[in-house]
Design goal:
Shape: elongated
Oligomer: single chain
Number of domains: 3
Number of helices: 1
Helix content: under 10%
Strand content: 35-45%
Distance between the termini: 62 Å
Amino acid sequence: MNKRMLPGILMLASGMAWGGGFQSAQQIQDAINQFVQSALEAGGKYEINLAQPDPRLQLPNCEQALQVFAQTGEIKPGRNTVGVRCYGDKGWTIYSTVLVKSFKDVFVLNKSMLRNDIIRQEHLNVETRDAGMLPQGYVTDISDVLDKQAARNIPAGSVLNRQLVTDPTVVRRGERVNIESSKAGVVISAVGAAMSDGAKGQKISVRNLSSKRVIQAVVVNAGQVSVNF
């Protein structure tokens, strides 16, 4: 979708001669649009806003194919400066502003969540939003939020990002856990007490209730931790 909303094109001319007709403004617009679209990631959802050339601008008709380039070397969401160059005796270069909006499908809560609530699929809506207006860390993969735990109270309508969710706690501080350790193929079990909350794969401190020794163990599941000596 192309919207010619932005004002102005800056012209730099070299050896300008005004014979042989003028370059079509539509051809310049088409060349810019084609260049920008080809530079963006395939399959994405974009809105491209091209600057409208000054109707008073009269450029000699280019005898060669127009060369289009990004001033920064790449096209990315946001404001871009794009150059169009004509080589030859009547060579000229102009610069135009192109605004690119990138839209992403993101996950939005349809109900408020309290801290430590587990986020289920029925709590999520998928909405298309302007990525430039989204908070950092927004997620587009449902596995990043599904069955995760709310890190704090989250109001309905919030776009979920990685700072708002965490892995669910499966071991609570003070809870009794089974400690498994292995050495040379021999598995030894003991009973301990978790000294902090822990999620799967997280390392926490555990007190062995028999030896009273505090060890570092990895949370395996609810009520179970593992340590290797």
